[in-house]
Amino acid sequence: MNIVDHIRETRDVTRDELESILTTNDKESIEYLRRAARAEADAIYGNKIFMRGLVELSSYCKNDCLYCGLRRSNKEAVRYRLTEEEIYECCETGHSLGFRTFVLQGGEDAWFNDERMCRIVGTIRERYPDCAITLSLGERSRESYQALYDAGANRYLLRHETADSEHYARLHPAELSWQHRMDCLQALKEIGYQVGCGFMVGSPYQTIDTLYRDLQFIRSFQPQMVGIGPFVATHNTPFEGFPNGKVEATLRLLALIRLLHPHVLLPATTALGTLHPKGRELGIQFGANVIMPNLSPRAHRKDYAIYDNKICTGEEAAECRACTEQRIRKIGFESTVDRGDYKE
Ligand code: SAH
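A: This is the predicted complex of the input protein with S-adenosyl-L-homocysteine.
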């Protein structure tokens, strides 16, 4: 039996199969992988691509992750923080454009403490009872996650970054721990959030073995969402001299994740679009089914600079929506602004 059929039937992959998929030059077998992954997504979600409105709350961050342009040691990074009113305006714009999922993402900014953040989530929940609220605010206490959930948040994105604790220690400063990251993910799940984990493809020191552990982690954790995108080397970070992650490897991993965990909500990320002009379209063709157009105020867009050359920093929310919609339609898919909850 060929590797792809074997993966699809067992919903599992061996380390050697993973290596073979990531290293092959055989175009036909990659096309077979792509079609198999797309067929899985089609069978569950049809040709629908879910659009989520992204609001980037703050470029302040107390962490010092070695890969990220917003790390606290980067004195050149421009820092901004949206006011509560600006956040509500973004949601109002998004809602009038049809979005029914808001993703509030930011650096780990202590300004957005539980009191403020619960008030923000509660207000959005009250104004838009039919919308899903997704948070991506990094590591917080279990009590904080619970309070935000009680205030009305439904989903939480927290990439695990790598399932290998030694690899984790090479990507982060000593004060950040892999175990704590894992505990956060577990807590989020127990509280009842739809949870997203994920990792960068081609991050420094990543190997076939660490990727294998990432895929095994996804199999056991069974997240509702998985965010993966290529690592983008970023100036003023310790990793500025490392090579970028590969688009091709990202696409193959997207397809693999779709085959291992067919129901997953899988975004075609902005990082993928940053390293290839048709990156997000290719992501969809390899099994992704989510895309996140930006709703952040244009004045601050370019300052949410987690990595270099980030795309879509010049458009208004409406243009972003129209552009994404058109790109999706052009490759034969149908964009939708529905809540797009995970299908059990
Ligand atoms: N502070 C939040 C949101 C972080 S940004 C949190 O910790 O979850 C979201 C993701 O961007 C990160 O989890 C990381 O995987 C990714 N990212 C950061 N820097 C990157 C880079 N240089 N290239 C590609 N992706 C990056």
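The pocket of S-adenosyl-L-homocysteine is lined by residues 67-68, 105, 107-108, 136, 138, 158-159, 161, 200, 229, 231-232, 234, 271, 306-307 (CB under 6 Å). Strands lie at 48-51, 53-58, 101-106, 132-136, 155-157, 194-201, 225-230, 290-291, 334-336.
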